[in-house]
Amino acid sequence: MSFLTIGHRGLMGVEPENTLRSFVRAEREGLDVVELDLHLSKDGALVVMHDADVSRTTDGSGPIAEQTLAELRELDAGRGERIPVFEEVVDAVRAPLQAEIKDVAAARALAEVLRARDLIGRVEVISFHDEALAAIRTLVPGVRTALVASRYGLDVVDRAQAVGAPLLSLNIRRLTLELVERARAAQLRVVAWTVNTHDQLRIARGLGLDGVVTDQPEIRRAVRFTA
After folding, report:
1. In this structure, are residues 167 and 145 in contact, taking their beta carbons and an 8 Å threshold?
2. Which residues form the signal peptide (predicted)?
3. Cα four-point dihedral sign 11, 16, 18, 24
């Protein structure tokens, strides 16, 4: 498998994160996979946003879980963009998707969409939450999953195996060759986030990773020069 470039919340380095504009830009720039984040609105919609609260990325305030989709739609998510729902992203781009479950409760709603729209082959479900990955595998047999971790040790390999996740998505600042070798011995693939500089890309290549998560389109273009 070739070295993957994964667009972080679309391409949040150049577009408003987790918006349709950002996802379309990531696809246009040639990113292999588009990553997004999911929460549930008050009325159960699969809302695409990183934070549990809308304050940082919109002109509104308050938790997503306390607002209906209609209320969330009134907010400006940057450059006039509206907060999308997962189904809209599926329709807006053709690229493979990484859907990160931020709220464990979103696993069941996501499972329903994956089954109804036959998206199991296109969408990889990722999460920091072991229980969310275990739940989605039960709800959607055969779905591909990845365990995400920021502060971790060698035991992250055991955690991934325990929930049947064949991919680790790890903070590059803590990544070591020892951990990569342990993951390889367990037949796990490894990608690193967030890789936004040429130096970080060289580190990722030197560690023999399977890909990187990036905010910047130039990292996609630089990959061919770091093989």
Report:
1. yes
2. none
3. negative
Which among 148, 197, 153, 206 has a CA at the least distance from the CA of 177? 206
Beta strand 33-40 pairing with 46-48:
antiparallel
CA 212 – CA 169 distance, rounded (Å) = 9
Distance of alpha carbon 132 from alpha carbon 113, whole angstroms: 16
Asked if residues 69 and 43 have their Cβ atoms less than 8 Å apart, the reply is yes
pTM of structure = 0.97
* Tokens describing residue 103: 């709220």
Q: What six digits make up the tokens of 16?
A: 């408003």
Q: What is the mean pLDDT of each run of 10 residues along the chain (227 residues)?
A: 93 98 98 98 98 98 98 98 98 98 94 97 98 96 98 98 98 98 98 97 97 97 81
Residues 188 and 184: their CA atoms lie apart, in Å, by 5
CB 81 within 8 A of CB 21: yes
Instruction: Name the residue with tokens 């189904």.
Output: 87
**DSSP one-letter string for 103-165:** STTHHHHHHHHHHHTT-TTTEEEEES-HHHHHHHHHHSTT-EEEEEESS--THHHHHHHHTT-
Which tokens is 15 given?
A: 């577009």
